[in-house]
Design goal:
about 150 residues; DNA-binding; Rossmann fold; alpha/beta
Length: about 150
């Protein structure tokens, strides 16, 4: 197993899923998994720790917002950085996603420089806290050397 953190991509469109995995590999992330629905993604997240989730917004049966809410409600998963993707966002989408705990948004198709900037933004955010702070384990400290110092 490599030293680079694992990334989970969730998109119900198989071609886009493969494209995002390829883009992440090109950015220097060799350990990238992809699934085509949020239910499977949640199962994977409960089996393995991921340093980042990149999820489509518009999916069935569970959309990206419902998936995000499940992650943020789970103490073991709540600090997983989450990047939401979609072909277009309106103000309501962005507002709902922000309230649900999305760390960033990116429009499809991805521009490599925008994707890299969003990754840095998401990785640098402070860990979330519940009303009663959890053990130190809840704070993620992840090093992505391929993105350089930030």
């Amino acid at each position: 197993m490599s030293d680079t953190p694992a990334i989970l991509i969730v998109d119900d469109q198989e071609k886009l899923l493969k494209l995002v995995i390829l883009l992440m590999n090109r950015l220097g992330f060799p350990d990238v998994e992809g699934v085509t629905d949020a239910v499977t993604a949640l199962e994977r997240m409960r089996e393995r720790r991921y340093a980042l989730v990149i999820s489509d917004l518009d999916m069935e049966p569970m959309d990206g917002l419902a998936f995000l809410r499940e992650i943020r409600a789970d103490d073991a998963l709540m600090n997983t950085p989450f990047l939401l993707t979609e072909a277009s966002f309106d103000f309501e989408d962005i507002n709902l996603a922000h309230q649900a705990g999305a760390d960033a948004f990116i429009l499809k198709p991805f521009d490599m420089s925008v994707l890299k900037a969003k990754l840095k933004q998401v990785i640098n955010r402070k860990p979330r806290r519940r009303e009663a702070p959890l053990a130190a384990e809840s704070a993620l400290s992840i090093d992505f050397p391929m993105l350089g110092k930030f």
